[in-house]
Amino acid sequence: MTSNNAPVTAKPVLTRAATAETTSDPSSVMTLLADCGTEGSTVTSYRSTFAEGAVGAPAHFHTRASELFFVIGGSLQVLVDDEVQTLNAGDFLLVPPHTPHAFAAAPGSVADVLFVFTPGMPRFDYLRLLGRVMRGEASPQEIKDSSELYDNHYVDSPVWQAALATAK
Fold this sequence. Notes:
Blueprint: E1 21-25, E2 28-34, E3 44-50, E4 55-61, E5 66-80, E6 83-88, E7 92-95, E8 101-105, E9 111-118, H1 124-134, H2 140-145, H3 147-150, E10 153-154, H4 158-167
Antiparallel strand pairs: 1-2, 2-3, 3-9, 4-8, 4-10, 5-6, 5-7, 5-8, 5-9
């Protein structure tokens, strides 16, 4: 049900690995699996593989969605509020709305992570934009300008900055 109690029109969504769209930058590859509102999907989901030392996202929060992390392989360093933890293969994390968080491949490790946003909202264009910025094809200002559209609100986190500096 939606907030006005109207039924959600959801359909099964199947994304084949062989035909899934990917976007990449020098340190990660994102496989786009399901984008809310596309082909009946009610969630947004993608898989990211991070090279050793890759930073996934700076500290930020979402106002409308919970973000779920499932570590498929390797290790992922995460910030949740003001605490930094390492998630290993098989670990699951749910970050509720309004909770500052960040993530990167754990020091000395690669990371393979499944992400799910629920309730979903269209985010694939944001992921494509991130890839273009990381490759130098778009301006970081475009990310700042899209914070409301994609519900990504960046915050300063001295704890996260210290964790990243220690990892180098």
